[in-house]
Amino acid sequence: MHEPQLLIIDDEKAILHMLTTILKKEAFNLIDTAGSAEDALALCQTKRYDLILLDVMLPNRSGFEICPLIRETTDAPIFFLTARSTDLDKLSGFALGADDYITKPFNPLEVVARIKAHLRRHSGKITNTSKTIYRYGSIHVNALSGEVTVGGRTVELPAQVYQLLLFFCKHPNQLFSKSQLYENVWGEEFLGEDNTVMVHIRKLRKKIEDNPSKPHYILTVRGLGYKFVPDGGIHEHP
């Protein structure tokens, strides 16, 4: 089962700490935080989020200003957090692409309830507005056309190898066990003795790595699984 990835954007450290603490108590374990518009936009360019909490009153650039920019990269629900509670403010927020509007001060348990409700509704949606272009270093993947280029050179990938790469692109810097990869990419229950994932990891490395025996992008975490590191981590042997 996919574990929701959340992003909280607020320049008040107390708000970030309070929301992170209460959400983790409610079993939301994948939470990123950003204290500025610039940090938030950088995260949204490299990671796929399932829901975003966005403060309106950010330094330098407001939440109203960056909401349309975030919406270009994701169709995930966006909640505005703000002390501004006029009807005009709320209508402006919804017009810019927000899905909910939470007024400060708020009850954190109400925020959690709204998050769970939106995630339940959103989990079954299929839209054409989700991110379709992934650029990580020399690797470019177009999810609409299925085209993959490495260093400007088109690379042909077998169907399941391509699906494995696309899954990694949607979940950078996240560790996945062999069973999680198999169940998400192949859509079948992992029986424990299947080498399918390992074989396809090897095929993918041959296509996108400069030196497959010392991978730069697809890293092995001993005894735990694999993760895709867009910036290129420490070279590891498979």
From TrEMBL:
GO terms for molecular function: phosphorelay response regulator activity; transcription cis-regulatory region binding. It comes from the Bacteria. Residues 5-119 form the Response regulatory domain. GO terms for biological process: regulation of DNA-templated transcription. Pfam families: Response_reg, Trans_reg_C. GO terms for cellular component: cytosol; protein-DNA complex. Residues 131-230 form the OmpR/PhoB-type domain. Keywords: DNA-binding, Phosphoprotein, Transcription, Transcription regulation, Two-component regulatory system. InterPro entries: CheY-like_superfamily (IPR011006), OmpR/PhoB-type_DNA-bd (IPR001867), Sig_transdc_resp-reg_C-effctor (IPR016032), Sig_transdc_resp-reg_receiver (IPR001789), WalR-like (IPR039420), WH-like_DNA-bd_sf (IPR036388). CDD domains: trans_reg_C. Residues 131-230 bind DNA. It is found in: Cytoplasm. The modification 4-aspartylphosphate is found at residue 55. Transmembrane segments: none annotated. This is Response regulator transcription factor.
